[in-house]
Design a protein that fits this description.
By secondary structure, this protein is of the alpha+beta class. It has a seven-stranded mixed β-sheet with strand order 5-4-6-3-2-1-7. About 15% of the residues lie in helices and about 35% in strands.
Amino acid sequence: MIRFAAFLALGLLAACSSPKTAADNSAQATVPAALPVMIRAANGTHRFDVEVARTPAEQEKGLMFRKELAADGGMLFPMDPPRTASFWMKDTLIPLDMLFIHTDGTIAFLKANAEPYSRIPVSAGVPVVAVLELRGGRAAELGIREGDVVNWGACAAPAEKVATDLNFCPRPAQ
């Protein structure tokens, strides 16, 4: 019985110890590539490479607790099906620009420099296909305004091999 208990204890220790890293690093998780997003503004087209918050848990967390955001980075929150979205800045440490993207690809509403930690909801008040969050003040720096057109995925970078099923190609207004 004592021998069995000793083997059991050794087995538990082995099971709880850290596994050795594979020599070729093939066991490590891969970081998903950033999704290209293009915004066509009056003064030109601006590219961003953003993270995507697809799941409810990812969307709930968003950019909370981040201390910085790259100038051409951000996060896209796709809405499928389109819906009226409401965001707040609880536990968000940095100011953000929130771009609510209408179903035709235009920016329906732009909330510039949303205040960190604010619990005041921000919404476009209309159904949107996505919300794009950028570093606070970036839209003004680039001259991005409501009415500008946004697309992403292979539609934003047709010459690149974009490995995603998340493509948004709005048609220009006729």
